[in-house]
Specification:
Layout (H helix, E strand, L loop, with lengths): L1 E3 L8 H8 L5 E9 L1 H10 L3 H15 L5 E4 L2 E5 L3 E7 L5 E6 L5 H16 L15 E6 L22 E4 L3 E3 L2 E11 L5 H15 L2
Helix pairs in contact: 3-5
Length: 209
């Protein structure tokens, strides 16, 4: 479900209209989160670490209203929830992208996600799935092969309608903690530095659950 926003009485009217004049309103940030507790929890319970932190990020995104605004055909909408869109590495080292339904509860999320992910790993599906035509998504790519301190995320053809994009890098030890780089790109008309900080705090809390 989505709600049409009346821009004339919207709390972000000035910010949105200001960045609407930009050729691209997109802003990118790279940070790091502590995955120490998440690594231990995943090992103890035998669940996929990637699925664990993907779910944590998805919950964090859904808890912050500003990450659920979207522009569509010149209008602004607020989605009541967004799902996860993520590329899955196949057995042949290609990709199949899948949409995974948002569930606040991790076990319910796994029940729906694992069969879809397993099919994608075997090569079933399309490279980009149905995600290109949906706005009720957040895109998260997992790159566990390398650590980064900055990354250039690709620019979409219609930047004002872009959905939030995240890239998670390789977890590496740092001062006794297991740290994971997180790069994100959002529409500045909807999201400010404050909201990015809120997301990172929520994400960290979910990783520490």
């Amino acid at each position: 479900m989505k709600q049409l926003i009346d821009i004339n009485c919207w709390k972000r009217q000035e910010e949105y209209l200001f960045f609407k004049t930009f050729q691209s309103p997109l802003v990118g940030v790279t940070a790091a989160v502590d995955c120490s507790k998440a690594c231990r929890k995943a090992k103890e319970t035998g669940v996929s670490l990637a699925m664990y932190y993907l779910h944590a990020a998805l919950v964090a995104v859904n808890r912050i209203e500003d990450f659920r605004y979207r522009e569509e055909d010149g209008k602004v909408y607020l989605y009541d929830r967004v799902d996860l869109f993520t590329p899955i590495l196949t057995e042949e080292k290609n990709y199949r992208s899948v949409a995974l339904k948002y569930e606040e509860d991790f076990q319910k999320f796994l029940e729906g996600a694992v069969p879809v992910v397993n099919e994608a790993k075997s090569g079933i599906g399309q490279a980009h799935g149905d995600g290109e035509n949906r706005k009720d998504l957040v895109l998260i790519s997992v790159n566990p092969w390398y650590r980064f301190t900055g990354i250039q995320l690709s620019d979409p053809a219609r930047p004002h309608e872009a959905i939030p994009i995240f890239t998670f890098g390789k977890i590496t030890p740092e001062n006794g903690r297991q740290m994971m780089p997180v790069a994100l790109r959002v529409n500045h008309g909807f999201v400010d530095g404050y909201h990015i900080g809120c997301f990172l705090n929520e994400f960290q809390q979910m990783l520490d659950r």
